[in-house]
Amino acid sequence: MMEQNKESTVARLQAAKHESGKSYSQLAEETGLTNVYVAQLLRRQAQLKPDTAPLLLAALPDLPEDHVREMMRAPLRSYDPNLIQDPTVYRLNEAVMHFGESIKEIINEEFGDGIMSAIDFYCSVDKIKGVDGKDRVVVTFDGKYLPHSEQKSEHMVSRTRPSEKQ
Judging by DSSP bridges, how do beta strands 135-147 and 114-129 pair with one another? Predict the structure, then answer.
């Protein structure tokens, strides 16, 4: 039921964007968000924050009020496993898989043993001209560095609490 509701909500959100004639980058400029985050909002993959709602409504005045309220609820972040069959998604995944080990090694070399957050994370897609004059896609992943913790038993909350008497 929730997935059906999500599908119909996303269809209405996408229709409002389409009817506006605006691109994700235009909407991003009007709202102060990244273009990828706007796309995530309109796919119900991100939560619309109260301070941003008026900006989004100004940019997309045809958004139904009930959909705006729905967008302000925490979303069910999911994806269709068949999405990998789309050539763009497949190539993006392939690029991350191909370069992932080297990216991980450089993160560890530059920062230490840790990872890039996908929660405290910004992403954008930009179009630029290459040195050869051809269009190029620039995908920027901007994530907070999170170091792995050394697992000392004295830091485990469950071990430092006094045991409850039975």
Answer: antiparallel
